[in-house]
Specification:
1 helix, single chain, 342 residues, 30 strands, Neuraminidase, Immunoglobulin-like
Amino acid sequence: MNVFKHLIIIILATTLSNCGDSSAKKNFGISTNATNNTIALDQELKLSIQNPKKFKIESVSYTLDGKDINEATILTDFKLGSHDITATITYDGETETATQNISIVSNTSPKVLGYEIINTYPHDITSYTQGLEFYNGELYESTGQKGESKLRKVNYKTGEVLKNVDLADNYFGEGLTVLNNSIYQLTWLSGKGFVYNADTFKRTSTFKFGKSQEGWGICNDGKMLYKSDGTEKIWYLNPETLVEDGNIQVYTNKGKIGKLNELEWINGKIYANIYQKNGVVIINPENGATEAVIDFSPLKERVTKHKGLDVLNGIAYNPETQTIFVTGKRWDKLFEVKIIED
């Protein structure tokens, strides 16, 4: 088995989407050239109308998620994932619509990247790490489990806790990100997140989730927040209104990647942990394409084995050193690494 196939099996739980016509059977249907209703980015999508009753059709128009397309369209500027095609058919003075679901996948397979360990630092073995991020040269961490969840600022070189806030026992802490001196921290199943002042750790507001019912990971690009919910979706979250403004769906050339967890924005890409895996995927934030994978499985062999030890989780980019820091749930080490191409 080659390295790429091995990584895909270990890291990526890809699932092809095989959806049929999502509408009730009417007079018309939509035929496509997509194999098993799946087509790759940059391929030509060809559409035609199924007309078993031989009505005289006067006109047909198509949309893909509300965007006008032609009966033959090159899928260049579309996001990946599951999409609905709608045909509006005019015939005999009447109008009817038909819908068909398709999945757009990446047109390239992910690259396989390696890493080099630069340094190893101590990490609190009791911390069930959910979020990790550098801000103004200091490391912030969010941890999970009810009764144990907290928000911390940590001296990453020594492991010393510089500031700490415990969450109420009914909250399960999740990811965090820091933007414009505000810390945004998610909770898992409570349907809400918290905003804190980064200097004082005073909670300044609470926000509710929208269509994404769960909170998993969060990052930012300096303007927009990006939020995962445990599925293949990453949501755009407006930092001013904290309203979800759409999403991307994360796909490879084979299918979707679910259980997206901790997120980190690094040089224009989103790095994501996969829940219960020891790997990271690198995502194009424009269309959801998985551009690369990194297998960090060997790191788990470098930490102290104990009963509560869990998987890799926690990615933080330090712009001062231009290196990446990774750890895991209840790991006693924080690894500084440099990503390299094999």
